[in-house]
Specification:
The chain has 8 helices and 4 strands. It has 221 residues and is an alpha+beta fold. The site of flavin mononucleotide (FMN) has 12 residues, from strand 3.
Length: 221
């Protein structure tokens, strides 16, 4: 698959089929993703790949927390800045509106947070979830490295015909995740990535993007 095609076809899929994902495909992707760049070549990511009964158990535990209205574990890093201003707030609101509509959740539904948490804690039906951790001693530069690594993984998944959805939501249940995967206190959960084949018959959600002139300046080019 052409790189442009991989970038263009990658989107956050929120309806996966239960078709299993071959371990060999995951191994190919994760072996190739080791080529992702990182400042000083620290390669600061720690990845746990969870599937089968351990994932089913994790989904059960997280879903029961979500359905009980559990507000989640104390956060180790903020999902967003407390003061989200324009243009970021506008982009956030537009994407959220598109997402709720695609998931069939009304904006004024009082149970909306619970429903969203429940869908996320089922990993949208994905048969595999990767959990990406960073060593607690790492700083902002290494968080950036982890983002580059995960995007590399998600693009390679496209080459295998697979889709993904990054999920920061798993950090709400980070203690449940860490207990299940056996991650020690020295590691901070960055996010999960749901992986699988897209369910047939679900209309794809293509989120908008800011015009390039809003985010890129060419100087001397
Ligand atoms: C680090 C990170 C965490 C995310 N967490 C979630 C999440 O918890 N649940 C979810 O449904 N989508 C999540 N997303 C997906 C974003 O909403 C999505 O990337 C954005 O709206 C752009 O849409 P696209 O990925 O379909 O292009 C996350 C994305 C990133 C990069």
């Amino acid at each position: 698959m052409d790189v442009y095609e991989a970038v263009d076809s990658r989107r956050s899929v929120r309806a996966f089929s239960d078709e299993p994902v071959a371990k060999e495909a995951l191994e190919r992707v994760l072996a190739a993703a080791r080529r992702a760049p990182s400042s000083g070549n620290l390669q600061p990511w720690h990845v746990y790949v969870v599937s089968g009964e351990p994932l089913a158990e994790l989904k059960r535990r997280a879903t029961s927390r979500a359905m009980a209205g559990d507000p989640g574990d104390e956060r180790e890093y903020p999902m967003y800045p407390t003061e989200l201003t324009s243009p970021y707030l506008d982009r956030f609101s537009a994407a959220a509106a598109q997402r709720y509509e695609a998931l069939g959740i009304e904006r004024d539904d009082l149970d909306r947070p619970k429903k969203i948490a429940a869908l996320n804690s089922e990993a949208f039906g994905a048969p595999v979830v990767l959990f990406c951790y960073l060593d607690r001693t790492m700083g902002p530069g290494q968080w950036g490295d982890a983002g580059m690594y995960l995007q590399t993984v998600m693009l390679l998944l496209r080459a295998e015909g697979l889709h993904s959805c990054p999920q920061v939501m798993w950090t709400m249940y980070r203690k449940t995740v860490s207990q299940l995967v056996g991650a020690d206190d020295g590691l901070v959960l960055f996010c999960g990535v749901a992986v699988g084949f897209e369910k047939e018959g679900v209309s794809p959600l293509r989120t908008g993007r800011a015009d390039m002139s809003e985010t890129v300046r060419f100087i001397g080019v």
